Every structure is written in C-alpha cells, then in structure tokens.
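Fig. S4 source data, part A: sequence.
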Amino acid sequence: MPHKRKVKNVFTPKLHFEPDQSYLYLSYFEQGQDYLSVPIESLVITFALKFCGVRNIKIRFIHCSGVKRCDTKINKNLDLDYIIESRDEAPKEVLACRLPVWYLPNQRTCIAGLCSVMRYAFRLAHFSEDIEICKVLLGFQQGCLSAPQEVSTWTKFCEVDIHKPLEELGGENLDVLPEDISKFEAHLKQPVRMHNIREKMQRSGKVNPVLENGVEVVVENGEKVDPIEVYARTEHVYAEGPEMLISDVLIYPIFYILHHKYNLVKLFPNVQNWFENVSESSALHVMENIVVTMEKDLRPADLPTATVPEESLYKCDPTRNKQSAKFYTRQTDIDKAIEWWVESGIDNLQQYEVESSEQLVWEDLPKIVHPLAGDLPPDRLQRKCGQLSSLAVPLANLARPGHTLVDFCSGGGHLGLLVAHLAPSSTVHMVENKEESLARARARGVDMGATNVWFFQCNLEYYVGTFDIGSSLHACGVATDLVILKCTQNRAAFVCCPCCYGGVQTLENIGYPRSEVFGGKAVGEESYFVVAHSADQTHAGGEKCEQGRLCMDIVDT
C-alpha cells in the first residue's frame, strides 16, 4: 500500500449502512433501445459492481447535459437495480455534486469522487450482501485509495489522470501517445511498496533467505541482498503488488478501451502483463458483456510513446524529486521581498482589531457547538474559541432565511455546526474530503439534532452547487484561494481565515500574486512565494516572529 497511516484495529467510517435508503447516482449522455451512452466514470462503476457480483445497490441514471466526452455505449441489460431518472426528480443535494455521487438522505450525506464512491459501494455491498471480494479488494485495513486525491498522487492517478488518455486520443494533433500510459508503465517497473510486505514474502515461499549474524539475506550474483528487495522487484503483478485491489478494478476499463479500440496495450510490456493478469480473472468476460462493440481507431498505434521519469506513482516514493523548502527561506531573498514592499507604497490593509466586533458568549450556547465537543486539546481550545467567534458572528449576520452557506474544508465541523445553530433559517453545506473528519462532524450534527445541515464528502472540485455565502477556517495554503475563487464564481459573499501561507502553489486555475495591485507593482511569483513562506514563521519569537507577521500582513493585504 502506498500511504502511511496510523495503525487501527478496525476501520470505522461511522456511517450507518442502510441499503434501502442509499442511492447511487450515475450520469449518462443518451439512450437507445438497448444501450446507454455513459461517461467513463459511469462505465468504471458499472464494471466494478458487475465484477464483484453486486446486485442490490439502488442506482439512478440521470442525463448529463454537459459536453459529451469519452462516452462508451453499455448494454441496458445489466442485471443491476437501476432506473433512469430525470434531473427534475433528482434531489437538489445530488445536483450540488459532480456525478457519480452517493445520496444518503437519512444521514444527510452525499459522497462524491470516483474513489470515495466506489469504496463506499464495496463496503455497503459487503455489509448488505456479504460479498467477500468487496472487502478483499479494499486491501490492508480496508485502506486502499482512502487518501483524498489532493494528498495522494496514486488516488489522483486512479481517479483522474488515467482517464485523460481517452480524452487526448479523441482529440486532434497528437504527436506522442498520452504520457499517463507511460507513467503507469514506469510505475509497474518499480519495486512494490506495501505495509505488510515481509509477512507476504514469508507466506509466498518465493524467496528463501538465509540467516547471517541474526539478519536475513539472499545471495544474488555473489552479493548479499535484503530479501525484501528481491521480493519487491518480482511481485508487481497488479497495480499495487501481488494481490488484486480496487485500484486494478478502477483502472482496467480504461485499458480495455485502449486495447480494444486503439490497440495500444501491446506497446507497453509491463502494462500488457498487468492487463493479462487482470483479464485472467472475470474482468475480461464482464467488460465484454457490458460494452457494446466499439469502432476501432488504429491511427494512434503508430505514434511514439511519451518519455517520463522512471518512478512510482506513490507520493512517498523516495526516488521522486522533492523541492527543497530552504529555497523559500533564504534571508537574503526575504530581505529583497520586504524591501520591494516598503518601496511599493501599498498600504497595509491588515486589521488586527475590528471596532464594535461582536463576540460569542459561549456560556449561552449549547455545549455540543462548543469546540470542547470536538475533542480539542486544552492548549488550542481558547485560541479556537476566538477564531470561531470571529468567523461565525459575521457569517450569521450575513445569513438570511433561505440562504445556503457552504463551509469548505469543514473538518470536524467546528465552524459549520456553530453557524447552523446561529442561523437556523439557513441551510449549511459542510464540504470535507477526509472521511474521518466528516464523520466526527456528522456525529456532532446528529447529537445536536441539526436539520439544516448537509454533509458532503468530496473535494472543492466535486461540489458544484450554487450558494449565497462561503467560508473556510484554516484551509491550508492554496485551498483558501480555491475557496475564494469558488465564492467569486458564484457571486457569493465569503468569510475566510487562511493558514499555512507557505503552502501556496500555482495551479491550472490559480496563479500568484492574486492581486492586480501586486501584479501592477511588478512583484513576481518567486518573490511572492518567498513572502508567503516567511509568513509561516510567526511562532519562533524575536525578529523572525516580527518578520513573519509583516509577511503575513503583506499576503493578507
């Protein structure tokens, strides 16, 4: 497994599995007499359910009005519990998400994002239909693909990146084959990385080490080698190691199309071996029964393959180049940036105190909305109370009856649940990509009997609803700017408190500096990042602390 996690005895998502009150919404482009034309996400989920023999999940297909991309025709005779529903019939909470999405009305929860949706489907199927393979595919401690795509390159690859080749091959003017295919080829060449590799090696019997001075070794070409290294080099049979997991299931339909439509798999030896290994299960048979015959397009097969680094797709891979944080904290660079600020003539707009600002009287509020209910340590409690009060009061004052407020990156629900209590005539949507954080928020929401709150387990990209007011408390680095961007696109008011200034980074839709005033004063991206990184140094005391506060003022201005 690629991600380091704390050891747990059992996996507890804190969602009650209610098969009769759980609805999986998928999208489709068009329907014929015996087929549905679906986007790749709907194809992947349909394949995964059929592959595992899941039959009782309630599926609702709704029409996708967007641009038709990467569509595949699947047979209507799926032997699944599904109906085709109009968008007018779909709950508004479902339409606030990019499909696919789980709709759990009794728990006031929606789950969006392909990996999260599929993980919940497997857990539900294991619970309600006792399908053991669904549990097995979730891997060690049921943690496969549990990390959100924002922090896991592997989740992002399985959820987003591996779909890109189908889009690129459908376009024009392609000079080389899509690089994400080459990245998977390079990934499969690397030694496997998983938690319990020693145990698996010992059970497999494929490596026979000898004991020298209390240390197990294997002799290769006259040299003593760690047996784990030998085993890791030979066991990349599936995407994550010697056993088939949910990641293989999510990736397989894409390569099925790359093989049967474009005849490309044979150009990548390691991918071909992986593809054949997965096909030897029932995967090939399932896809052949699902997919309507595709028209072949052999033109891309003559293109050269993309050149990519020989590295794993796991973020923790030690061979990945990591940019040194020291680059942004050289004192000479900070001095130059501050000198630019002094000479720019821009007024400092930071406000440390706002006149007549209201403060909450925590003693007058229910204990369940107090930060104490969120299990905060004592040293953070007082500071958290002040932060929450500073955000919750203006949010409650902005709210009007019927308004929708969205608390992005809501974590354990400290801010969102407090605002829901202060503005009972408004609806609060809490958007959080970490399953366990949202579970804590949901548990508190149930305890306080909140009927004006909905919980969305997804990232910002997958929440596409319209809203009136947005907020975020301690959305790290670039996340605060993504929240503000989403609010401005919705013409919504917003109240945000950023953190981790040094975590800002240029994205496809986010560039720095954000301010036209700063840009007009010729501050470059590099200088801006120097200031932002220094703004995190407010805890050291002395000159560094004062310098950090000044840099924080510059960024906030």
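Fig. S4 source data, part B ends here. DSSP finds 19 helices and 16 strands in the chain.
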